[in-house]
Design goal:
It holds the Pfam family ABC_tran. The protein is of the alpha/beta class. The chain has helices at residues 46-53, 76-86, 102-114, 117-130, 146-158, 176-193, 204-208, and strands at residues 4-15, 18-30, 35-39, 61-66, 69-70, 87-90, 164-168, 196-200, 212-217, 220-223. The protein binds adenosine-5'-triphosphate.
Length: 224
Amino acid sequence: MALLSIRNVFKSYFLHGKRIDVLRDVSLDINAGELISMIGASGAGKSTFLHVLGTLDAPAAGEVLFDGKSVFSMNDAEIAEFRNRTIGFVFQSHYLLPEFTALENVAMPALIQRKDRTPSYAYARELLERVGLGSRVDHRPGELSGGEAQRVALARALVLKPAVLLADEPTGNLDPTTGEGIHQLLRDVNRDLGITAVVVTHNETLARSMPRRLRLAGGQVSEA
Ligand SMILES: Nc1ncnc2c1ncn2[C@@H]1O[C@H](COP(=O)(O)OP(=O)(O)OP(=O)(O)O)[C@@H](O)[C@H]1O
């Protein structure tokens, strides 16, 4: 059975009396352990797709299934709990908290979730080492380069050991070499931690380096 599926999903936005149909009857199965890139023109709906897949946004029609169970049939509190437990997010901007160190930023979701300080810090430190930032744990976001800050954001997305990692243009603000480094880390995390990952990118070369490639166009997702 697929780990994550979306079935006949529709999503539209209404703005100033106009309707924009962004996802039109999208169905897709994602198996545990897959590493997938998604490309598509600006405005094609990639972020919308990722938000629905990640349960941040409900579809207008259709279903999102995790392990065969319909996520949006749960109530809002249950969906939020499911999301925190199951899905890690990385966005184009790192959204690190400026007044906290890299270590504190990475540990934050675990501190909030588990109210258990010591193991959280140990694992946060391990993750920072994994992303090559063992020597930057005490730096605040303003004292990190863009690529380093994005690596901290990746470590933070992993701290609750999610089954799924969703990354929305994680390299969009980075130079190509630094961007390639982030993609390499995503490949490492997928391979070593067994995390299923979907990565939206504008970079065709990086997209092609992923084992499975999707394209979003005309409200539809196809294999690319
Ligand atoms: N909250 C919203 N209200 C109204 N329209 C929206 C909203 N969010 C997105 N849209 C529209 O939906 C379409 C898809 O947006 P989305 O952000 O998913 O595209 P994208 O493929 O991620 O684009 P980009 O690559 O530029 O980030 C766009 O035309 C956008 O203008």
